[in-house]
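The instructor's notes for this session suggest beginning with a concrete chain rather than abstract definitions. Hand out the sequence below and ask the class to guess, before any prediction is shown, which regions might be ordered.
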Amino acid sequence: MGILTWLGRRFRRPPDPIDPHLWHETTGASALFADLNADELARLKTLAEELLAEKEIVASDGPDPDGAERVNLAATCALPVLELGARWYRGWWTIVLFPDVYRRSWTEEDEFGIVSEYEDDVEGEVLQYGSVILSRRNLAGSNSTVVIHEMAHQLDRITGEIDGVPPLHPEMNAGEWVDVFDRRLEELRRLVDRGRRGPLEEYAAESREEFFAVASERFFAAPVILERSLPDIYALLRAFYRQDTAARRRRT
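After discussion, reveal the predicted structure:
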């Protein structure tokens, strides 16, 4: 980091407060925030204000994001790090909003050296250098969890590689994390291969990193279901995020 960049961040002005009425409308419109109590909402608001001050949110095409769109995005980004802090989103600075899903092409080499080319419609993506791309149309849905998915990838990326193993807390066991996630991933793949429905969406069977991101979506959006269907995965996510979302859901 250059000295001018460091000084700019060191002496950055305090975040602007979010308008209380806009905050109330934002958090009241999404089921993701329905279980939070007053103290949790207040801390989430502070985190969202920090993120709005630090991250640049731009549109690739069309109108610039308005206040409501920015606050909704910041609040949703803040939810996974409610008990971790904004510093867990260090190392990236930009969220780019695309009007709709976009077409992405990539290549993949198998163990035999055969390179295949693929194309797919993408709702969100974390780029190699850290910026986040999100589908604006998808974000308009009140129950969209694509932001949670991409923020899980950002947390995963802190270790230098998106591999489904985020930086675990000292009291957590990395071997246990890998064993549990890999076992559940293989179980899901077997169900998908047989055309059966699993406890997570089929996309989670792609890799350990996608399993982690999809499970994180479920952890915040439908925690009681995740706790019942994948209790070991839920326990690991509870320890990592330091939030007991199922207990919070039952509380409300």
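Then share the key points. DSSP finds eleven helices and six strands in the chain. Residues 164-252 form a domain with the Collagenase (Catalytic Domain) fold (CATH 3.40.390.10).
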